[in-house]
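Supplementary Note 2. Why include the ligand at all?

Several targets in our set were suspected to adopt different conformations when bound, so apo predictions alone were not considered sufficient. For every target with a known small-molecule partner we therefore ran a joint prediction. The input for magnesium ion is given below.
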Amino acid sequence: MSKRVSLTQYLVEQQREHGHIPGQLRLLIEVVARACKRISISVNKGALGDVLGSAETENVQGEMQKKLDIIANEVLIEANEWGGHLAAMASEEMEGIYVVPNRFPQGEYMLLFDPLDGSSNIDVNVSIGTIFSVLKRDDSSRPVSEADFLQPGRQQAAAGYCVYGPQTTLVLTVGDGVAMFTLDREQGSWVLTQDGIQIPEDTQEFAANMSNLRHWAPPMRRYIDECLAGTEGARGKDFNMRWIASMVADVHRILTRGGVFIYPWDKREPQKAGKLRLMYEANPMGFLVEQAGGAATNGQQRILDIQPDTLHQRVSVMIGSKNEVDRLTRYHHEAAQSSQL
Ligand code: AHM
Ligand code: MG
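The joint prediction is reproduced in token form.
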């Protein structure tokens, strides 16, 4: 029987061999993983645990919250507030930052999360997930504030997600490649099931909510039109399409077999850069995908280079196989240049 490597062992060995996982960060990742295990148990219980349906409340983005959105948010806060590794947390489900209460010691890290991504899939028993991003404070001498969080994604110390699907899988980067762990339910432990994940540079599969196509900008429509034209069109090859409506599950497929995920700007709400949030959706996914050899852009620039202005900032997202993402960037630049002529 091949030797099983647990998440703890993986992190300890990474720390020992490369020395780039400080003790506080290792503890933080283990606590987040433990919280995801608890969320996974609730997700699995479904109707039996009375966790389905709406909570009849709205979050800061004006979206109706599901019971599981709130449960997952509480689990992540309760698990992380007392360990001494964090200064504060931020979440899709909370308007402002959550500063670690005075009764606990404060650490130097900050945790951001989308506690339950793909909320529209909860009640229909389709894969959903948790996305998280870890930042470090630049200056610990003054009280932590929202301004400490407003760092570009390239400064993330770690990022990951947990997908609650047919299997529960945790995918993680600490800036040295991407590793995947599968939850062994009988043992209650995370087992390393893949390391050094690489996304193929080329793909024939895209993920987009095609019902919105007519509302997208010309370079985006050009890209999709060419994919749809298949072997008879400019690309000279057929494309397949997948859309799960859980970014976690769509990105997980892309990390597994390649592809490109797109959630672009939409002219119905021109003042919004996109639907997805930069700091706890696009940044962690961008970090993971880049660490796996892929790319992530908003059409104009690399996602990880965007300087955030606000915690809940939205962004247009094109992420996945490198050559497709580069092509999308080129189409956006060409459109910008021709509009200046
Ligand atoms: P959520 O965080 O409120 O669940 O919203 C984000 C989700 C993404 O996971 C997914 O890619 C997208 O919204 C789906 O949007 P749509 O329903 O427009 O297809
Ligand atoms: Mg989300």
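The pocket of AHM (ligand 1) is lined by residues 63, 92, 114, 117-120, 209, 245-247, 263 (CB under 6 Å). Residues 108 and 137 are 6 Å apart (CA to CA). Comparable summaries for the other entries are listed in the accompanying table.
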